[in-house]
Design a protein that fits this description.
Layout lengths: L17 H31 L33
């Protein structure tokens, strides 16, 4: 007698999870970069100068304007012609 055995092998394929893993990794990297950006630009300056600024927030700004009068002469001449 010959034993005939028939096996039915069912192959189950799981969907590829590479895409979802890549999306999760990229999201984690973006969140980490944003968190580091926030710390460097907003938190470090608070503790960098001890919280105090020497000029109390005032900045020296020099603006030079050269305005022409109606005749096209420079405004620095002073006298009337």
């Amino acid at each position: 007698m010959v034993d005939e055995r028939k096996e039915h092998v069912e192959r189950r394929e799981e969907p590829d999870r590479t895409g979802s893993t890549a999306i999760k990794s990229i999201t984690a990297i973006i969140i980490t970069v944003l968190l580091l950006f926030f710390i460097v630009y907003f938190v470090f300056p608070i503790f960098g100068d001890g919280g105090e600024q020497e000029d109390e927030g005032e900045e020296d700004v020099n603006i030079e304007l050269d305005l022409d009068d109606e005749e096209g002469n420079g405004g620095d001449e002073g006298g009337e012609e």
